[in-house]
# Entry
Amino acid sequence: MGDALLELKQISKTFFGVKALDDINLTIQRGRVLGLIGENGAGKSTLMNIIGGVVQPDAGSQLVFDGQPYAPKKPAEAAAAGIAFIHQELNLFTNLTIAENIFLEDFPRRRFGPLSMIDRRALRNQTRDLLMSIDLDLSPDALIDDLSPGHRQLVEIAKALHVDAQLIIFDEPTTSLTARETRHLFEIIERLRADGKTMVYISHILGDVLQMADDIAVLRDGKLVGSDTHDAFDINRMIALMIGRDLAQLFPSHTHTPSAEVVLNVANVSEPGIVKDVSFHLHGGEVLGLFGLMGSGRTELARIIFGLDRFSSGEIHIRGQRLDHNSPIKSIRNGTAFVTENRREEGLMMEATIVDNVGLLSLNDHARTSLRVVDQSALVQDVRQIAGALHLKSGEITTSPAKSLSGGNQQKTVIGKWLMSDPAIFILDEPTRGVDVGAKHEIYSIINQLAADGNSVLMISSELDELIGMCDRILVMNQGEICGEFHGRSYDEEAILRAAFRESGGEMTLDQPHNGQGGSHNG
Amino acid sequence: MKRIARKLLLFVFVIAILVPLGNLTVLAQDTTICFAFQDLETEFWVAGHRAITGTLADQGIAVIERNANEDANRQLEQVRDCIAQGVDGIIIIPQDGESAVTIVNEAQDNDVPIAVFNRPPSDLSNGIVVVADNETIAEQAVEFMAQKALARFEATGEALTPLIMVGDLGDPNAVGRRNGFYNVIERYPDLFNEPIEVATEWDAATALANLEAAITANPDVDFLFTSSDFLFPTIRSVLEPRGMWVPAGQQGHVIMGGLDGDATACQLIKDGFVDATGVQDLFFEAQATLDALLAAVDAGEFQPNEVIEDPGFALTAGNIIWREMDMWGCVLLAEGFLDQ
Amino acid sequence: MDDIANQSPPPDSPIEVGQPSAQGAAAGASAAPSAASRPAPTGIWRFVRRLLLSEYFILYLMIVYFIILVPLLPTLSRPQNLANLLSNTWPLLAVAVGQTFVLIIAGIDLSQGSVMALTSVIGAAIFATAASPDVLSNSPLWGIVITENGGLLSGNPLSVPVGVAVMFGVAALIGLFNGTAVARFNMPAFMVTLVGMIFFSAFAIFLTQSENIRNLPEAYIQLGKGDIVSLYFGEQAESQIPRRQIYSFLTYPMVIAVGLAVTAHFMLSRTVFGRQVYAIGMNRQAAEISGIPVRRVITLVFMFSAFCAAVGAILFSARLEAGRPTLGAGTALLDIIGATVIGGTSLFGGKGKVLWTFFGVLFFVLLSNTLNLMNLPSTQIDMVKGGVIVGAALLDVLRNRLLSREGT
# Structure
């Protein structure tokens, strides 16, 4: 204790007159794990970029690393000083092998006459030892391209160990990992801690931070608003510090009550390798949560219900009509809306204006004459109305492109697009991903309003908190199956998490071709 | 809303002001001839191009050259450009007989005299047309080959198997050459078996594929006429591996002839592989074209119509010693063309 | 025309070439230079930036290019040359309009040239008024469709309308094939249309055994070169006006190509179909999820592209007075795609306008014309053209960079 590895003193950074970081004073203790949390835009990445030499802090800022003044001008200097980054977007060469990536800068060599040759055998053996040390049973000659995201992350860690990094910074390491991979990662971090490594762990998943970190620092609007050992925190305090108000205030109060009418009935739906024997109901005016980790099959299920993908057995009824197609056009006509988890790839035309984006679904409603000419002024008027109702903050809607909007306003644009088609069932896949807290609150309000108006919402999320705060009922999905249903306003958080993290051990049947007729045998 | 209209209007306005400027300028008073050719891909057209530009330069006439790269549409546009530039006369080597008719009409409609060099329009009635009599030239070459065949027939008593490589039959030259060949074959009914036809479309790759197939099916071919000399290298690449590329006087020699008279053919006749080639007298053709065109220009005649025939001759192993320098290919050869 | 121009204004308002105050005094050629030298309020950089971002950049460039070259190439501004310029513009415009649609959906249509070849041959085989057995007797069509008396409907007053309809039908079928392969089987457009290019041009050559079909009816030839209004600048007194002093002004190809372009512009900018085309080009996945009939729209776009190629085939083959199986071969594709890209339509999809393509075609034709007038060899002309297309692609990159810098 008390042995500082990295000291940050009066760190400030101004971008175009805006303070991204404001007088940060923080000490990272040797041999401990610091959890760093904050909303998007709170300054986490700027701070890490300064440590990593990607950007330079304002004058007056001071860093001390290992007792020496430290002012990296470029990432290579940070690496040379012994700081390793494990990013969301990994920095591996996917066309090279594991061994080549790890030893990229210092291949073991042997002399062959006048030539200096790469010593393949030594390379392989050293790599194997490194991989064994983190329980990674892979061939050193495997191509990165063939590895899962979790394995790639572990290779990055192996690389950090190889260069004997003194400080390892994990930036959102679990976003693309499966449950099993996440658990493996945590085990490795535990082991590194035991070996006395110093680490910074940045994550949105507050439970993970609470579990992994010895110390926790909270950033808000570029300022350090809290810094203490982990037992001084609980989830509520972390959120309160991050958003500057209480958790209770984050979720607007419920104003809706589900009706008895079943608008969506999913019965024994299976598709081999994707979902297995899924059954549930969605009522009118209900907000139904669907919780599950990445790869649990929740997005795939949403795509099936929306008619984008096929399923091999079972039945889906939407508002009494049997879903017998795989065409989004019919689903839209039938009153279904689908806000996808990936705005950029599946939701928006980033170069197009807000009017063009929001109006996309209702072009036919604004077509005049048999030539199907778009009544532009009517369209603009309708879009303006929706934009107003959603409190969309943007430039002129007829000229500003979607890419000029913030994450929250982009999401509102997507929601607005669906509102234009006047649907009754909303499938929202991660509706608040990449959205700051203020906008989250607004989106929650919109969801409540939708339900209050009698619409049904199927809300998919990997943030349990927001499902607990928003939903009338929560379904938990794990490995393609619904493995739990939780009712009422007081949820047993632990039970939900247990269901979501449950491993089915050796009896995984998803990879086997599913017997189509068997789909209906259990009810 | 008016923005687009305004920009366009401005553009038109600027041009409108500049138009009279263009009208004021007068072309230099020297005689200018536009020479529009379709391509320079084979030796023959290179030689034709040289014959014409050389003749024009000798007479001190300015020349505007246009290469259409085998695109008839582009040639039409180029000829129109020439007309707009106010040339005194046009010489074209057209892409094909059909587009030649259209282009000749275009020029004559605009009162510019036009001459068509070597590849005749499908309608000969308009323009100055200088054309080799392909049928006669081919006949001369094939007749010489037939005499050789006759000598062999008398020795062995076996009929010969003739093969003809025909050109693109859309080109009247190709049709004439084929007719000349058949005229001779029919003259000696006992001497020859049924002739084999190989289509080439004037394309070396097509010719190679078709000739390979034909020779494989008929390995006994011993009398070969190609409608154009530029195919000799192709023929060689097919015959040589089969042991059929043998000079005259040795066992297995295929009696061979061609037409055009290029440098390769000249060399091959000297070496004895080829027996005869029909020669277009390019130097005569170039001179005749220019003479007729300039006469029309001087006379102020805008639509001169005339057909000039080039009788040509056959260059054979027999007469090469004294006619060598009349043949364009041998001239190129003497200048070291094949060494380039 | 006013109707078409009356659409939502472009995002970045382009600079005004003729200021209202300067307009009256703008005596001819001084108009554009005065605009070019007008100092922008915050420096020359800002001015250049706005100029580059303007959607009329190519038009300005064209005007400047024209003005610079007129004193050097006196022929350039002669009425006859301008008439040539225009007559070269129309067929290219017709084809490039179709290519514009395909590029907007992030596709490419390499088969347009072969569609031109095939439809021109098929049309001619229907309405030719005579045919020579010397030339065509080897054709598989001889004796069945074409005889010595000409094509299938030779002499019939309806031969041209029927023939043109069949040309459109054949084009639509090829477009349907391309579109289906791309939309339904998710094959790359480059691959599909490359195969189409090879196959259909070979088929056209096979049909006539590489021969051209001449003797097209006068009514058809008029479509490619017929004048509606001609101009004569000489004195009125002369009774016989020499042909070379009459300049085509309003011609049938002009009416056909402009009509096609205006219709296409209307379709793209005003109709639901047009919005769907842009949406697919910008984000196909988003469009699919948003209920746009992606496959149908892609198929229709390829059919329209082939249709435009058939219109181009009419204009090209009518002015050459022959159905040609080699029409659209060689560098024709360079001209079509090049002109479209020079106009500003992006090869990455989602961006493009018919009006831009019109500017691009005009510029391309002007470029070819001036290079010809400079008496450059054809190889150098093609090199310059290639360079200009690369320049246009670089300009697109530069614009995007400027715009993204503006975004921060």
User: Anything to note?
Assistant: The interface with chain A takes residues 7-8, 11, 270-276, 278-279, 282-283, 285-293, 350-351, 407 of chain C (CB under 8 Å). The domain at 76-233+244-328 of chain C is CATH 1.10.3470 (ABC transporter involved in vitamin B12 uptake, BtuC). Chain C has 18 helices and two strands.
